[in-house]
C-alpha cells in the first residue's frame, strides 16, 4: 500500500489515509487501497476501527481535483461510484468505525467522515462541501448523508454556499460528537474504541445494523428489524455469559472478555 497505513492494537484497528503531501486527497489509488484495507480487516479479532489522516493539518482535503479535472461525464459518474462503493462499504461495515478528524475534512473528506458511525475532531478541524465552487456537486454521498445528519436546511445552506465551518460549529450542528485538543484526539478515539470493543461484539454489530437499516424504513418496519436482531442475540454465548455474570451474586467474580460467539 502506498497511501494507507493499517495498524491493530488489541481489538482496535486504525486506518490512516497517508498522502500527506496532497493533504490526504482521495485519488483512485487511495480509494482502491482503502477498499482493499477494509476487505483485509480480521473481523474475528478487530471489534472497532478508527479512521484518520496522516499529519497534523488534514484529515482528507477532498477528492483529488487534479484527477477529476479532465474527467468526461461517464468517467465522472464512474469516479463517483468508486467513492460511493467504498464509503458505503465503510458505512455498512460490520463493526463500528470512528472518524478522528485531524484537520481539513472538505468535500470527499467530509463525506468520508460522514460514512463513519461516529465523528470526533481536533480543535483545528474544518468541515465543508466546497464542490459547487469547483463546478460540481458533492459526489461521494455528501448531498445524502449531510442532510440526514444535520437536517436538510443546514445541509442545503452548507452545500449551496460552499462555506466551510470550524470544529465548534460542527459540534453545535451535530456533525461531530466531541472536539479535543489536537494532541489528545487519537488517544480519545482509542479510549472510545476500547470502550466499544469491551462490549459484546455481536450485540454491538447488531446495534449498528438495527440503527442503519431502521433509519432507511418506516417505524413499523424498523422495530421489526430491531426485534429480529434482538432475538438473534439470545443465540449467542456472550448473551448467556453477560446475563449470568449480572445475576451471579458472588462479589469476587471478575468479568471475562466477551468471546464474540
Ligand atoms: N485534490 C488534489 N490536491 C489537493 C487537494 C485536493 N482536493 N487539496 C489539497 N491538495 C494539494 C494542493 O494542490 C497542494 O499540492 P502542491 O503542494 O503540489 O501544490 C497540497 O495539497 C497542499 O495544499 P495547499 O497548498 O492548497 O494548502 P493550503 O494550506 O494553502 O490550503 C486547503 C489547504 C484549504 C485544504 C486547500 O488545499 C484546498 O482548498 N483544497 C481543496 C479542498 C476542496 O475543494 N475539496 C473538495 C474537492 S471536490 C470533492 O471532494 C468532490 C467529491 O465530493 C467527491
Polypeptide structure, described:
This protein is of the alpha/beta class and 261 residues long. 47% of the residues lie in helices and 16% in strands. A 6-stranded mixed sheet has the order 1-2-3-5-7-10, sandwiched between helices. Strands 4-6-8-9 form a 4-stranded mixed sheet. Strand 1 and strand 2 form a beta hairpin. Helix 1 packs parallel to helix 3 and helix 5 packs across helix 6. It starts with a strand and ends in a 14-residue tail after the last helix. The model has no long low-confidence stretch (mean pLDDT 97). The structure holds acetoacetyl-coenzyme A. Acetoacetyl-coenzyme A binds next to helix 2, strand 6 and helix 4. Acetoacetyl-coenzyme A (CAA) binds next to helix 2, strand 6 and helix 4.
Average pLDDT works out at 97
How many domains? The number is: 2
Return the structural class.
alpha/beta
CATH homologous superfamily identity of the largest domain: 2-enoyl-CoA Hydratase, Chain A, domain 1
CATH topology name of the largest domain, in short, is 2-enoyl-CoA Hydratase, Chain A, domain 1
Q: What radius of gyration results from the CA coordinates?
A: 19 Å
How far is the N terminus from the C terminus?
32 Å
Q: Any ligands, ions or cofactors bound here, and which? A: acetoacetyl-coenzyme A
- Percent strand equals 15-25%
Largest sheet data: 6 strands, mixed
Count of helical stretches: 11
pLDDT under 50 segments (min length 5)?
Answer: none
User: Strand order, biggest sheet?
Assistant: 1-2-3-5-7-10
Amino acid at each position: 500500500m502506498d497511501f494507507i497505513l493499517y495498524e491493530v492494537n488489541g481489538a482496535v484497528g486504525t486506518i490512516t489515509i497517508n498522502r500527506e503531501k496532497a493533504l490526504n486527497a482521495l485519488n483512485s489509488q487511495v480509494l482502491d487501497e482503502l477498499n482493499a484495507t477494509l476487505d483485509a480487516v480480521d473481523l474475528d479479532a478487530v471489534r472497532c476501527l478508527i479512521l484518520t489522516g496522516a499529519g497534523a493539518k488534514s484529515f482528507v482535503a477532498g477528492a483529488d481535483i487534479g484527477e477529476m479535472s479532465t474527467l468526461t461525464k461517464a468517467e465522472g459518474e464512474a469516479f463517483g461510484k468508486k467513492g460511493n462503493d467504498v464509503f458505503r462499504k465503510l458505512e455498512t461495515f460490520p463493526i463500528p468505525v470512528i472518524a478522528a478528524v485531524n484537520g481539513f475534512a472538505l468535500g470527499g473528506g467530509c463525506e468520508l467522515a460522514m460514512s463513519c458511525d461516529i465523528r470526533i475532531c481536533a480543535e483545528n478541524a474544518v468541515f465543508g462541501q466546497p464542490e459547487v465552487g469547483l463546478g460540481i456537486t458533492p459526489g461521494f454521498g455528501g448531498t445524502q448523508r449531510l442532510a440526514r445528519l444535520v437536517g436538510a436546511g443546514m445541509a442545503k445552506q452548507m452545500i449551496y454556499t460552499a462555506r466551510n465551518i470550524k470544529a465548534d460549529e460542527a459540534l453545535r450542528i451535530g456533525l461531530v460528537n466531541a472536539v479535543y485538543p489536537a494532541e489528545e484526539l487519537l488517544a480519545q478515539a482509542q479510549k472510545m474504541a476500547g470502550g466499544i470493543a469491551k462490549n459484546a461484539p455481536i450485540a454491538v454489530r447488531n446495534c449498528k445494523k438495527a440503527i442503519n437499516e431502521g433509519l432507511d424504513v418506516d417505524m413499523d418496519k424498523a422495530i421489526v428489524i430491531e426485534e429480529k436482531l434482538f432475538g438473534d442475540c439470545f443465540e449467542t454465548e456472550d448473551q448467556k455469559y453477560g446475563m449470568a455474570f449480572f445475576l451471579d451474586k458472588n462479589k469476587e467474580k471478575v468479568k471475562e472478555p466477551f468471546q464474540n460467539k
